[in-house]
Write a structure and sequence with these properties.
The complex is a heterodimer of chains A (382) and B (331). Chain A is an alpha/beta fold and 382 residues long. Chain A has 13 helices and seven strands. Chain A has two domains: 318 residues, Rossmann fold, CATH 3.40.50; 35 residues. Chain A has a five-stranded parallel beta sheet with strand order 1-2-3-7-6, with helices on both faces. In chain A, strands 4-5 form a two-stranded antiparallel ribbon. In chain A, helix 3 packs parallel to helix 4 and helix 3 packs parallel to helix 9. Chain B has 331 residues and is of the alpha/beta class. Chain B has two domains: 184 residues, Thiamin diphosphate (ThDP)-binding fold, Pyr/PP domains (Rossmann fold), CATH 3.40.50.970; 127 residues, 3-Layer(aba) Sandwich (Rossmann fold). Chain B has twelve helices and 14 strands. The chains are: A alpha/beta (382), B alpha/beta (331). The interface between A and B is large, with 43 and 47 residues.
């Protein structure tokens, strides 16, 4: 066969024309972008007893998380942080799922789960150590059952699965939640965590924030089926929830956690949301996506829609919003001051904790390093 | 009942590891054994034979066939307070787990500023000489020794296999435990009530005056044969069994080289960037004025591990090590 004839031949079927095996994906939504409460026979019961105070709490969480996030972006621009991965636009997915958790549940985050960290009670300033470059994870994972941020994409889903296997062995009724994104869904580790959790029936919730973009690659570059449908092939349920709807995110996560606690094994939740900002402060989304897309998602803003609901249902008054504004500014100030005051680590910290039980080479090199450092002082003194 | 209390038993190296795992499972409820086929089958080398029957499927766990998943879930179990001992079925199968080992397991303690510990043992049957197919005969220890946060050990005999496994499981650091698969069936005395040597301390297994042979794992036995042959020619070789590749016991190597003034390092792994290279560099620094000859290395070539019919050409053998001994002594 000649090259020409190959080129001339039409493909019998291209990936683009193949029909998806699914029908239109179903999206669990309890609050419309306009802030209207819609009924849902399956998931309403998980938020049926939510009080106005709790709703205001969710709103406060989202506003403060966004304020913290904006402050961190500014601090990066001012040179106080080396990098920042903004969660702008994903507040509802994170606060909704984060507030569904019990204290004894355990969280395995990516590096963007600032809202979940907030729900767990991790001081926001602690999150900034790694982005400032003073440590690689500045909190005790067991202090708040919130594991360290994981940078390598998808690795933490296996840790979550193993941890959940341990929970089951202990006979506890805690649940574990693993956060990851649409990009991570292509990683082998995520597929392996689905396999392990399924065959061991591990009490883990896989919470995938599909924010539509893995740096510059759209979700279409990762998958041909809606991501939540991946679960079916592994033998556990998957659900797509409106990730910009804090109430729906809360309800669906509660349902999934309940499944885990009652011995029904893993669940995949795909929170359909949007990364309104750049991947990180080093990224330039204008090179790969249109402004119109972002504008369309801004109309579905997670904070705006809860505000509309709170106002329409008279669950919050002007005083609440004004007070929150003050609190928000105070948080920004506190974070700014804390970061600026964050000292560089002692130079010998680089040898610390390389090993728990010590290592002869580390001891030797630390001593050499100390002697080298001391040689400067000696030189000046001589 | 017999009057004397027999504590020493003659057993094969594989059985010694089996007994050590059994003891660990028996004494610490947090110890788990995980891997492919480790349950009913007892592992492809039968190292875990009978353990699932006695300790149950909940503690001796057959895993899905996914190495990254095995190590990744072991990390999660360790975070929950367990002490998993995972088996990688063969040396050449560890690489799907390499990311989890290097990027996660090795660094978790440090990045948590010491808050979490990673007491995970990764057992890897390694090395050649058994006529296996591709990817079943490799010696990747240097690839792990290069990574801070990991400890890398390899026993050469049943007694060390038993005790080093006990110590590896008790370690709060991750230990990559390389088992010399061609020595699995070699027998030796194991005293289960002895006081073991420290895990990372090298042992002089034969004293000599003319040259030091340094080896670990499967090559220690070969070095004994080399020393026997050399003795017939009137040469007195000292043999040091390193036992640990990370950390390396440079003090013991230095002490021996200061005595013999000559050093040959033997391992199955490729010589290029192998552990012998690190030993040569450090010993040259430490013993520059003691050395009568450059440190020589005998090991695999910079070529993919060959098909079984060629492996004897690739692996260090009696004559290749003797040749290096002669070259060193000729300086």
């Amino acid at each position: 066969m000649t090259v020409e004839s190959t080129a001339a031949r039409k493909p019998r079927r291209s990936a683009g024309t193949r029909k998806s095996p699914s029908t239109k994906p179903e999206l669990v939504q309890l609050l419309t972008p306009e802030g209207k409460r819609v009924k849902n026979a399956e998931y309403d019961k998980y938020v049926a007893d939510i009080t106005p105070e709790e709703l205001r709490g969710l709103y406060r969480d989202m506003v403060l998380t966004r304020r913290f996030d904006a402050e961190a972006t500014s601090l990066q621009r001012q040179g106080e942080l080396g990098l920042w991965a903004s969660l702008l636009g994903q507040e509802a997915a994170q606060i909704g799922s984060g507030r569904a958790l019990r204290d004894d549940d355990y969280v395995f985050p990516t590096y963007r789960e600032h809202g979940v960290a907030w729900c767990r009670g991790v001081d926001p300033t602690n999150l900034l150590g790694m982005f400032r470059g003073v440590n690689n994870g500045g909190w005790d994972p067991n202090g708040n059952n919130f594991h360290l941020y994981t940078i390598v994409i998808g690795s933490q889903t296996l840790h979550a699965t193993g941890y959940a296997m341990g929970v089951a062995k202990d006979g506890a009724d805690s649940a574990v939640i693993a956060y990851f994104g649409d990009g991570a869904s292509s990683q082998g580790d995520v597929a392996e965590s689905f396999t392990f959790s399924a065959v061991y029936n591990a009490p883990v919730v896989f919470f995938c924030q599909n924010n539509q973009w893995a740096i510059s690659e759209p979700t279409e570059r990762q998958t041909r089926v809606p991501l939540y449908q991946r679960a079916q092939g592994f033998g556990f349920p998957g659900v797509r929830v409106d990730g910009n709807d804090v109430l729906a995110s809360l309800a669906v996560t509660k349902w999934a956690l309940e499944r885990a606690r009652s011995g029904e094994g893993p669940t995949l939740v795909e929170a359909y949301t949007y990364r309104m900002g750049a991947h990180t402060t080093s990224d330039d989304p204008s090179k790969y996506r249109a402004d119109e897309e972002r504008e369309a998602w801004e109309a579905k803003d997670p904070i705006l829609r809860l505000r509309r609901y709170l106002e329409a249902s008279n669950h919050a008054d002007e005083g609440f919003f004004a007070e929150l504004e003050t609190e928000s500014e105070a948080l920004g100030r506190r974070v700014r001051e804390a970061v600026r005051a964050m000292p560089d680590p002692d130079r010998f910290a680089l040898f610390e904790h390389a090993y728990a039980d010590g290592h002869a080479l580390v001891d030797e090199e630390r001593a050499e390093f100390a002697a080298y450092q001391a040689s400067f002082t000696d030189g000046e003194g001589a | 009942m017999a009057a004397e209390h027999v504590t020493s038993t003659n057993m094969a190296l594989a059985k010694a590891i089996n007994e050590s795992l059994r003891r660990a499972l028996d004494t610490d409820p947090k110890v788990l054994v995980m891997g492919e086929d480790v349950g009913k089958l007892g592992g492809v080398f039968r190292v875990t034979d009978g353990l699932q029957k006695d300790f149950g499927e909940d503690r001796v766990i057959d895993t899905p066939l996914a190495e990254s998943g095995i190590v990744g879930t072991a990390i999660g179990l360790a975070l929950r307070g367990y002490r998993p001992v995972v088996e990688i079925q063969f040396d050449g199968f560890v690489f799907p787990a390499y990311d989890q080992i290097v990027t996660q397991l090795a660094k978790m303690h440090a990045r948590s500023l010491g808050k979490v510990k990673m007491p995970v043992v990764v057992r890897i049957p390694y090395g050649g000489g058994i006529g296996a197919v591709e990817h079943h005969s490799e010696s990747p220890e240097a690839l792990f020794a290069h990574v801070a946060g990991l400890k890398v050990v390899s026993p050469s005999n049943p007694s060390d296999a038993y005790w080093m496994m006990q110590q590896a499981i008790q370690s709060d650091d991750p230990v990559i435990f390389f088992e010399p698969k061609r020595r699995y069936w070699d027998k030796g005395e194991v005293n289960t009530e002895a006081i073991p040597d420290p895990l990372h301390k090298a042992k002089v297994v034969r004293e000599g005056t003319d040259l030091t042979l340094v080896a670990y794992g499967p090559m220690v036995k070969l070095c004994k044969e080399v020393a026997d042959a050399a003795a017939e020619e009137g040469k007195s070789l000292e043999i040091l069994d390193l036992r640990s590749v990370s950390p390396l016991d440079f003090d013991s190597i230095q002490a021996s080289v200061e005595k013999t003034r000559r050093l040959v390092v033997v391992h199955e792994a490729p010589v290029f960037f192998g552990s012998g290279a690190e030993i040569a560099a450090r010993i040259t620094e430490r013993c520059f004025y003691h050395l009568e000859a450059p440190v020589l290395r005998v090991g695999g070539y910079h070529a993919p591990y060959p098909p079984a019919r060629l492996e004897e050409e690739y692996l260090p053998g009696l004559d290749r090590v003797l040749d290096a001994v002669d070259r060193s002594l000729a300086y």
